[in-house]
Amino acid sequence: MNDRKHLTLQQLLDSNKSWRERLLADDESAFAKFADGQQPPFFWIGCSDSRVPISHLTGLDRGDAFVQRNIANQVKLSDTSIQAALAFAVEVLGVEHVVVCGHYGCGGVQLAAELDDAQQVDHKLRQWVASLHSLCQQHSGSLSSLEGEAKLRKLSELNVGKQVDNVCLHPAVQARWARGESLGVHGLIYDINDGSLHNLNISRNA
Ligand SMILES: [Zn+2]
Question: Do 197 and 101 contact (CB within 8 A), yes or no?
Answer without folding.
Answer: yes
